[in-house]
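Box S1 | Example of a co-folding query
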Amino acid sequence: MIAALKGFSGVEISLDTAKPELVFATELNAHAPGIRTLEEMREVILDKTLVLPKELYYMYRDVYMKKDTGLLQSHKLRYDVTLIKPDMLGKELMKTAGHYHPGDFGELYEVLHGRCFCLLQRYRTEDATVIEEAILVKAKAGQKIVIPPGFGHILVNPGPQHLVTSNWVSSEFKSEYELYKETQGAAYFIMQENAKVTYIPNPNFKKVTALRIVEPAGRIEAFGLAEGSPMYPLINRSPEKLAFLNRPLDFNYADVFVNSSGGLL
Ligand SMILES: [Fe+2]
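Box S1 (continued) | Returned holo structure for fe (ii) ion
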């Protein structure tokens, strides 16, 4: 099946679920994806004995409209698209490896297809194995997830569809994957059995706070975000709304989530 994603992304991207792969129109600059394999992920998966699936997700980094090359450079921004398969990792939901950002850099995600669980965690300054805040953001296509400064994050695909996300992020840093490897995963493992989702605290942490389950706010005026309104065009229309990605501490993040209604998600 080919699914057009432009309605949510604002740019000509399609999902070919059979391969799976993303297809980009010629006006976009896009390279072959980085492929995250089971072998690379084994450390952070609860069941270390898995042999399948071999490939978990696909990272299309630095996608942009060719006409916007200079704009992205001058605003120090990068736009990536990630495709996460709907398979299970044993009884664990399909997920990304997880990383922190150096310094205080945040990030801005948008769900383009499927459903997304984004697990955010913030550790105590003097001890990375003490989690002081753990937030699970449940989002669907069209919704935006603002990652506030200081939070590491993984993306989880609760299925049954392929999950496709885009993200705006500063081009000025490289993600740090080491802490997630040291703790062999995020603060929680998200499991599913008989259609029931459970959250298992990762025993490799000394302390993990209770999980707070939220949804993205429908409108976030400070960052120019509205549910269902694509975020790529911000770079053309109002790039100042993306300034928080390079000056994260100059902004307030109190209103980016609302408590989960516990509805269809
Ligand atoms: Fe990130």
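Residues 69-74 form the longest helix (6 residues). Residues 33-254 form a domain with the Jelly Rolls fold (CATH 2.60.120.10).
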